[in-house]
Design a protein that fits this description.
The chain has 268 residues and is an alpha/beta fold. It has helices at 11-29, 49-58, 75-81, 126-139, 154-164, 210-218; strands at residues 2-6, 33-37, 62-64, 99-104, 107-115, 144-150, 170-174, 184-186, 189-192, 199-200, 232-242, 245-255, 261-264, 266-267. The structure holds fe (ii) ion (FE2) (2 copies).
Amino acid sequence: MKIAFIGDIIGRPGREMLAKKLLHVRKEYGIDFVIANSENVSHGFGMIRKNADELLKAGVDFMTGGNHTWDKKEIISMFEDMPLIRPLNYPEGVPGSGYKVVEVCGEKLAIINVLGHYGMSMVENPFIATTRCVESLIEEGIKNIIIDFHAESTAEKRGLYMMLQGKISALFGTHTHIGTDDLSVELGTCYVSDVGLSGCRDNVIGMDKNAPIKRMMTGLPASFDIPKQCKKIMQLIVCEIIDGKCISAQKLRVFDDRETLVQEALYE
Ligand SMILES: [Fe+2]
Ligand SMILES: [Fe+2]
């Protein structure tokens, strides 16, 4: 099966890029299933149902989240009837699920979403929670396992990857909104520290530069906004999986105003 993973989609510019480009990319690369991080889909904070429907129409099959999952209250009802998960390491009783098993090309595929520790809220240990979840999926006979590790620290991301290398199909980092250049495939596991954002590429992490600059210069709070106009990008990893092992991966950077850049993974 061929899976694509899209990092944090930031507001309307991100949704527009997917609506314009994703179906073409799906067709060109023969992608069977698209997973997208959706924590910033609605004006940069959380996701409402109307915007989730737009993503599904644009070619997304499954949505993950992060620390911004909870920003719009509507999300609670969406866990009931949408292909959507939230980070795994919240305490029992919190709405939604941290993983789901779906069927792709007649095979089972598990998707796990997990939140890092550094700079995040008081969640449970992501390393313990994730390794437990992976072990129980493997015991159930599930081979195809994809993780969205939503974390600030590249060290945490590489640490979890090292723990699970050879046991899972892919671990994709999200949250920083800045793509990293370390896409690799080792022991059948695809890894990148961060996929990077889809949305405005010429401001500050997809948000209008004025508020963060004001905050940095004065120390005073300033509310973030989506730029009115900007240059846009859609960033995704395309990963081919056979029998639970990733055998090839590319990073695609699809622009609104220039040719797509393709980066091949480093194979070890
Ligand atoms: Fe984000
Ligand atoms: Fe985040």
